[in-house]
Amino acid sequence: MRKDAMKILFVHGMGATPWDAFPTLRRLRKAGHATATFAYFASVETLASIQARLVARLSALARDGDYALIGHSLGGVLLRHALCSLPAGTRQPRHLFLVGSPMVATRTNIYLNRFRLYKLLFGECGQLVASPQRMAAIGTPDIPLTCVAGTLGFPGRRQPFGGAANDGIVQEAELRPELFTDVVRLPAHHPLLPAHRQLAHLVHQRLS
User: Fold this and answer.
1) 3-state class of 120 per DSSP?
2) How would DSSP label each residue in 124-149?
3) SS3 of residue 70 by DSSP
């Protein structure tokens, strides 16, 4: 790797796969970075199991030197929780990119949580992002952070979010952009944010 290159781990969102970020990770590799992904299965894994595996993965990354993290949607929530659970003295990432990742329970998940199919498909992960209390209990690590918000949601006041800025699934207000000093808005729908052509550029720029 080049001297300014970085090991970068991507964690996908709920109901998604690591392949969602393939274009971005390919662009980052072309820029000289070493990329990897962390996969989980919300329908069959417990939240505790996912978190234990993620903490172990981050601990291994930290032992090898500097690294950065990209979390899409629930992936960002899992990363925040795992980082706050790392053993004392563990090297923290150089940067955490939260891509369409809510800081509070989302209106969409709270609504969907009324249905049995949602609970079957997304298990404890789905319960987490539908719980205001559990989401509020997850801390935010004291490291450089970038909030990435999608802007191609439902327009107009008659849409499901009542005119609030959104990416089709998450409202921008649920990302709590006022908590960040670095906020980037990309013209993309929520599921397509990890593959947006500008994401790799902004990640590389921040790490450089």
Assistant:
1) helix
2) HHHHHHT-HHHHHT----SS-EEEEE
3) strand
Q: How many residues does the chain have?
A: 208
| Alpha-carbon gap, residue 25 to 22, rounded angstroms | 5
Residues 6+ positions from 64 with CB-CB distance below 8 Å:
7
Q: Could you give the CA distance from residue 6 to residue 179 in angstroms, rounded to a whole number?
A: 26
CA 115 to chain CA mean position, Å? 24
d(CA 208, CA 206): 5
Which residue stretches of the chain have pLDDT < 50?
Answer: none
Contacts 24+ apart (CB under 8 A), 56-62: 57/9, 58/9, 58/82, 58/83, 58/86, 58/90, 58/93, 59/86, 59/87, 59/90, 61/7, 61/9, 61/93, 62/86, 62/90, 62/91, 62/92
Average pLDDT of the chain, as a whole number: 94
| Strand pairing report for 95-99 and 7-11 | unpaired
pLDDT in the model for residue 195: 97
Tokens representing 21?
């970020």
CB count within 10 Å of CB 20 equals 22
Q: What is the CA radius of gyration of the chain?
A: 16
What gap in Å lies between CA 140 and CA 76, rounded to an integer?
10
Residue 149 in contact with residue 184, Cβ under 8 Å? yes
**Res 158: pLDDT:** 56
Task: Say which amino acid occupies 89.
Answer: G
